[in-house]
User: What shape does this take?
Amino acid sequence: MHPSFAEDDDVVVNPSVQPKLDELVAGRVLSRRGLLAGGMGWAAGVMLGGCTVPTRPAAIGQAPAGPLRLGFAPVAKHTLDQVSVPDGYRLAVLHALGDPLQPGYEAWRGDGTELPASYDQRVGDGHDGMHFFGLGHDGGWDSRRSDRGLLAVNHEYVPSPFVLHPGGITPGAQRVGTEAHKEMLAHGVSVTEVARSADGRTTMVKGSPYNRRVTALTPMELAGPAKGHRLMCTRHSPQGTHTRGTQNNCAHGHTPWGTYLTCEENWTNTVSRAAGDDVRRTAAEVAALNRYGLPEGRNSPYRWHTAGTDDLHARWSSSVTAGSADADYRHVANTFGWVVEIDPFQPASTPVKRTALGRFSHEGAWPAPVVAGQPVVFYMGDDARNEYIYKFVSAAAWDPVDARGGLAAGSKYLDHGTLYVARFDADGTGEWLALSHGLAGLDAGNATYGFADQGDVLIHARLAADARGATPMDRPEWGAVNPLNGEVYMTLTNNRNRVGAAEKPVGAQLHTDAANPRSYADTSARPDGTLRVNRGNVNGHIIRWREAGGQAAAIRFQWDVFLFGAQADAPADVNLSGLTDANDFSSPDGMCFDSRGLLWIQTDDAAYTDVSNCMLLAAVPGVVGDGRQAPAAGGTSTLAGAPVTPATLRRFLVGPKGCEITGVTLTPDHRNMFVNIQHPGEGMPADFKAHRFGSHWPASQQEPASLARPRSATVVVTREDGGEIGT
Ligand code: FEO
Ligand code: CA
Ligand code: CA
Ligand code: CA
Assistant: This one.
């Protein structure tokens, strides 16, 4: 069995969830009374526990000229080692693992023998979240430009098999230093200039001065309330103002001022803690480390700390090894789990970790459309089972003069504000709970963890959210905001630890609730006749909400479930959205709205992959409340959005074997779409000597019999007639 380097977080570390259920039920009763008392004046038309059709809020963005219609034939499910797109479309690889960003570097060799240090100027591994920024003639951001731009791409992790190295990982108790070094440099972010030629093809501009790698070694500034906190102090930065590296960068965000946000998700994959460390810690420190998935004796899968005793390697162990915190790396774990801001237009600038947005397993950070004079709002998910959905509301009101303000604007809007966590109530409403020091339970008197100050609350946002009674969700992945009406969508990819209303939860399992309503046993037959054995919320769903009064900064909201993943032949209480062969899918993960209001949905699935590799679908969404109350498998009633049809949800792309489809961004003119193919062949048997891997993509795209190593890559999709994609 290969070691698990996958980004999926299998570790349930939220021990506080079970007691919260009773409190939640009580909270719902109170909320219901509040409704009856007329406390929800904003939600005219809402009926208690019933299905409603709310008034559509005033359009925020530019409405499309006509009705939005999908204009391509659905792509068939398959398990080939190929990327398939609709008839009339074509695709090309923009860049793949190991491609050099600069001249003077040899091409990727395909045998793992490139020098480790060369990865400082090569495309990293595990392509994930990304964003296209138009590059203006003056060298700054031009939000309307499509033919020249900067593409920022996350490189989340090094998938197994480790094709970076000649024969994969060298076995042994200690990692080989050169291998660890190469892996550190293969993490992080790449920024590359891309340009479209007259024939409509977009390619990477090798040697562009904008081309840049940010890695697990890059110097970083800390900013916001946790900057300079005693819990951020390390041997590298005794004042707690700086750190090195961003890694495990899953999804992303972009700002209204033209910067890129990269989000640190499964950072415990790179940070370890020694056995016996607990006795050197306070009880509160131990509680906090455990809540964040770092119990004593936990080795990260990469074990970089074993590759040497020097500072480069020692910093990956968050253990007490010296007499004071400024002489070791006991707090290094606190320097990961943040949203990091990068200015792609300033390649020499230092990335900044924005601590006001809280520390957890950040999937991404997605902005609401900005309104002059209103706060700037970002939505965020903590991707682990039973974790929460958050939003950040800036203290400063948006001033359009900052629209190209770079990191200075980031300091203005992202270092001061309020972090909230979401509670979803069974009646279809919800509330944002502030994580502000001194509020209910967020003070030194908290019995689980005493919060000294706001920096402490943000460093331990999960513990603060526990104390406020947030709703544990089925693994929040990507968010997206509908540019036409401000409604917010978030994927909840799956959760095997949900049990039905009549079942008894064991261990970290939770009962279903209205917002995480399905639990079922999928024991259907695979194509080969064997039985699947998946349980819980096997196929995931997409929740959405509308903020009160259409104000992104509002405290209350109305929600429903836009879409349920399912096999087309699943029972009606599983296939609640009415999926068919043209659009059935499992485990929604990546997602983005384009400016026309088309919603793109990507999958990271392991439940239905015997029928189809992971995929990308396009949706024309409705609005919150357009469906009905529905009984979900497992015995819980939910608020389901209107069923979809092949006219409103259609499969657009299917990837190669063993991949995840994650990361999607379009040029402003919608004529180029960038899609990431992450970890082809992951977890499948590999034989380095015989050149046999579970996937040989991207080489297999042109040459099905290829024996080349699999590589994560960005592909560019275009229409053969040069038209707009999707419609
Ligand atoms: Fe990296 Fe939550 O997926
Ligand atoms: Ca993801
Ligand atoms: Ca995922
Ligand atoms: Ca994956």
Notes: Residues 73 and 438 are 56 Å apart (CA to CA). The pocket of calcium ion (ligand 3) is lined by residues 8, 477, 493, 589, 604 (CB under 6 Å). The radius of gyration is 24 Å.
